[in-house]
Design brief:
single chain, 124 residues, alpha+beta, 5-stranded antiparallel β-sheet, 3 helices, 26% strand, globular
């Protein structure tokens, strides 16, 4: 019997977002769904956690993209490197919703958009 769950408090400077792309309606399975959590100190990313779903057969933790962001000032070049790393970490599937290359390209776009927004403090 489950009697409780302990959820640790978020660290100071944490910013997070989940963003998904569906081709038709919000109820659809995500073509690309990106979860991101960054611990920021000004413009410097101290900790990055990124995971993507919908691109392949199962969700993927984007470890190389995380490494590209951690202990870095988050400028456009750094974010673009992380987006390229993320695209290289997945084995996208193709189906009626989109081709494998389309999913890979959308992942790049989503990483740039989400990480860029979080770096700027846009956390809506």
């Amino acid at each position: 019997m489950l009697t409780g769950i302990d959820v640790p408090a978020m660290p100071a400077g944490v910013r997070w977002r989940y963003l998904k792309w569906t081709p038709r309606a919000q109820e659809d399975k995500a073509l690309v769904g990106l979860a991101a959590m960054l611990v920021m100190d000004g413009r410097r990313c101290r900790v990055a956690r990124l995971a993507v779903g919908g691109v392949g057969a199962s969700p993927v933790v984007l470890a190389r993209a995380e490494q590209a962001l951690e202990d870095q000032e988050l400028d456009e070049a750094t974010i673009a490197r992380a987006a390229d790393a993320a695209a290289g970490e997945v084995e996208p599937m193709a189906d009626l919703q989109g081709s494998a290359e389309y999913r890979r390209d959308m992942l790049r776009v989503w990483v740039r958009r989400v990480v860029g927004d979080l770096a700027e403090g846009r956390v809506s």
